[in-house]
Specification:
By secondary structure, the chain is α+β, with helices and mostly antiparallel strands. It has a single domain, classed as Alpha-Beta Plaits (2-Layer Sandwich), CATH 3.30.70. The relative contact order is 0.31. It is built from three helices and four strands. Helix 1 runs antiparallel to helix 3. The chain is globular. The longest helix has 18 residues. This is ABM domain-containing protein. InterPro entries: ABM_dom (IPR007138), Dimeric_a/b-barrel (IPR011008). Pfam families: ABM.
Length: about 100
Amino acid sequence: MSKVALIVTAEFEPELKGEILHALLAHRERSLRDESGTLQFEVLVPQNEPGKFLIFELYADEAALAAHSEGASIAQYRAETRSKITKVSKHRCDLGQELPA
């Protein structure tokens, strides 16, 4: 089975940055601790876009991604940020080194 990566962009009003970052980092910690198939979860803070976060997530396989997507941590994060995030973009990616030649 191939690993699955996501690149997620979350947009919000800049004045909510600290509150959303706090919730996102707590979600990151729970995901890495409690979900064995969550291999990597990085939160990137653009220097020139105060109302945006980029998130890189890496999962062991499709089942791990499904478990994360339906899990308690993401549900908690969504409840905490529901009215605060104005736009979310997701890009599902394969890892280049795992693609056939």
